[in-house]
């Protein structure tokens, strides 16, 4: 009789442990899903910010080159230098210098 009771307790214990394990497993799945969703949202936000920054840099390059082309012929070396510049602050500074320059040559001297 005692062995039977012990066996029943083990079975009940196992079921309780199984139920607890299932609950724990479900909690882990929910945490993983929440972590994935958070990571994805952060990734989207980061990607969007990076895209906006790249767009501003590209627009600044286009504006600068367009303005310089109105002053005269832009040498390939200068055009390449502008295209290779990836710092928005530098490009803004260059745009300011271009507006104050009377020629492409004057601008080129100012940025050296």
Question: How is this structure best described in words?
Answer:
This protein has 112 residues and is an all-alpha fold. It has one domain. Helix content is 88%, strand content 0%. The protein has four helices and no strands. Helix 1 packs parallel to helix 3. The longest helix has 70 residues.
Short description:
With 112 residues, this protein is an all-alpha fold. Helix content is 88%, strand content 0%.
Derived structural class: mainly alpha
Give the overall shape: rod-shaped
Series of H and E elements: HHHH
| CA-based gyration radius | 33 Å
- Beta-strand residue fraction: under 5%
- The counted number of beta strands is 0
- Report the end-to-end length measured between terminal Cα atoms: 97 Å
What's the overall average pLDDT, rounded?
87
Poorly predicted residue ranges: none
User: Main sheet, how many strands, which sense, barrel?
Assistant: none
Helical amount: over 70%
Count of the separate structural domains: 1
Number of helices: 4
